[in-house]
Amino acid sequence: xxxxxxxxxxxxxxxxxxxxxxxxxxxxxxxxxxxxxxxxxxxxxxxxxxxxxxxxxxxxxxxxxxxxxxxxxxxxxxxxxxxxxxxxxxxxxxxxxxxxxxxxxxxxxxxxxxxxxxxxxxxxxxxxxxxxxxxxxxxxxxxxxxxxxxxxxxxxxxxxxxxxxxxxxxxxxxxxxxxxxxxxxxxxxxxxxxxxxxxxxxxxxxxxxxxxxxxxxxxxxxxxxxxxxxxxxxxxxxxxxxxxxxxxxxxxxxxxxxxxxxxxxxxxxxxxxxxxxxxxxxxxxxxxxxxxxxxxxxxxxxxx
Amino acid sequence: xxxxxxxxxxxxxxxxxxxxxxxxxxxxxxxxxxxxxxxxxxxxxxxxxxxxxxxxxxxxxxxxxxxxxxxxxxxxxxxxxxxxxxxxxxxxxxxxxxxxxxxxxxxxxxxxxxxxxxxxxxxxxxxxxxxxxxxxxxxxxxxxxxxxxxxxxxxxxxxxxxxxxxxx
Lengths: 304, 168
Known about the structure:
With 304 residues, chain A is α/β, with parallel strands linked by helices. Chain A contains seven helices and 15 strands. Chain B is 27% helix and 26% strand. A four-stranded antiparallel β-sheet of chain B has the order 1-8-3-6. In chain B, strands 2-7-4-5 form a four-stranded antiparallel β-sheet, with no helix packed on it. Chain B starts with 31 loop residues before the first helix and ends in a 9-residue tail after the last helix.
């Protein structure tokens, strides 16, 4: 799941939590999962013209949200609405809960406008994250399109720190234009100072761009990986992931080791509302990260 | 299929005994004797970063088989400068305007990094293709694969999948 790419995912919430007043009130844990906690913005960085990174700490005296890479939270701009946003840095890495959000509608515009000191509501974490255990002893491909790099950003940092034991790790990034590439300076630093192979391409260059131009799959021939011993993590627009996953399996990467972060209209986050159904799956529970072996037949059904 | 140049000479051209060192991914599926024919028309070239391989409007007289490095295909746009339209990496090829009259280059090509390439002389190649229809078919099949891939990639870019959906 990328962050803030679908305005239709921006569901306005009622002013009060509907479950709390129900006569058949669910068990307390469900109420807790449906109740946003206040988090204060402690840092706000502009990544691209329409995208901001917010760092958040609890404002209720409780512990922070202990998400793992690939999970998401529901972020609530009070009085405006709530959206699902993947974590782009996790507290276990010693940093605050971090979200990178693109302003695509009323809710995400309100979240992006939050300044240090402002308070947002946060529920979660929800969903299944990246199966990082599969990276042990294998080559790793991280392939991101646009803001799809945000949910993969903790994976990139984990790879930069790992003892590779001779296994390769490559980060392939596709963007619309050079100005639309998030984390550009940090990517350059990781490429220069770590063993990561970082390849970046854009759909449309500007006169100052001296890098690659073209689709992200065009970077695959230059990536160092042994297909049979590779695990791949993909995030970006669904079309980009569909084409890239097919290219990887064509190259010999097993489908069950190609993992995609899927985006649907997550709403409740706990499998109750069914808004994020994809065939037999509820992506807020069974995803957002799913393997291509399972997803492949579903991605060709247009009604889903 | 477009016919190769009708100016083919009748005398067969010499073919090197081996062309194994001439393989790059884009044409690696060609028959060995056909690769040898390519090699017989080729010379090795290298380019420094920033060096121009060719310019728009020039005579298309070379097929470049990129062994290493990255080449940018560019077009100069008044008031904007040179805009990179596509990049081509190792194992790929650059230039097919030599296939079709008037053999005029459509874009600039510039080395983004240090580049090594097999530079196949187009006139020599057209002659060999006219002499050997199987070579022509084999080469055109592999060129068509490259062109189909480029066309698909260009269509993907036309989708503009990374745009902000709030844009109308």
